[in-house]
What we know:
Elements: E1 4-8, H1 10-27, E2 33-38, H2 42-54, E3 60-66, E4 81-82, E5 93-101, H3 105-116, E6 121-129, E7 142-146, E8 152-153, E9 169-172
Parallel strand pairs: 2-3, 2-5, 5-6, 6-7
Antiparallel strand pairs: 1-9, 3-4, 8-9
Helix pairs in contact: 1-2
Residues 37, 40, 69, 98-99 line the site of magnesium ion.
Amino acid sequence: MNDIRTLFDEAEIAGRVAALGREIRATVPADVVLVGILKGSFVFMADLARALDRAGGRPRIEFIRLSSYGSGKQSSGDVRVVGEVPASIRGRPVVLIDDIADTGRSFVRAGELLRAAGVARLWTCALVDKPSRREVECLPDFIGFTVGDVFVVGYGIDHAEEYRHLPYIGSLD
Ligand code: IMP
Ligand code: MG
């Protein structure tokens, strides 16, 4: 078991996600489709959908799966979509949701695919942003937390499929 240092505890996450729900609601139409990137966004999506409801939104929920990040800590740089982009996003406002913006490749690639699938408008939302790691141009419209060059786990985010269950966000040594 590796050492995990808590970066954001449950109360901090709840407060930030509630605020994000209000920020998103103030910007996007009520009938937005939240498109989460699996698996890392699953916990965040569940909380964000309810935060949006409390802010007066009524989002639809979809997920897409990108090709595996591998079991190491480095991105392969080769991002592909597994399966199909949901047809229900055509002509609708969409917020693309991922756990982390790291090199930026996942957001850029998934965004290209959603645009090609005919979304009306597209915003992006990262629970955790790591701007110092960027390799392609990518600035998420909505950001939960900003961190430096650390590897984070918990609240849906894994390392080699471990730690997704942690209710807080921590850094892994
Ligand atoms: P990007 O395409 O390089 O921006 O990488 C985004 C994806 O890499 C995220 O959705 C995560 O799956 C993974 N990733 C990047 N940094 C971390 C981290 O610190 N912890 C866990 N996964 C990470
Ligand atoms: Mg991911």
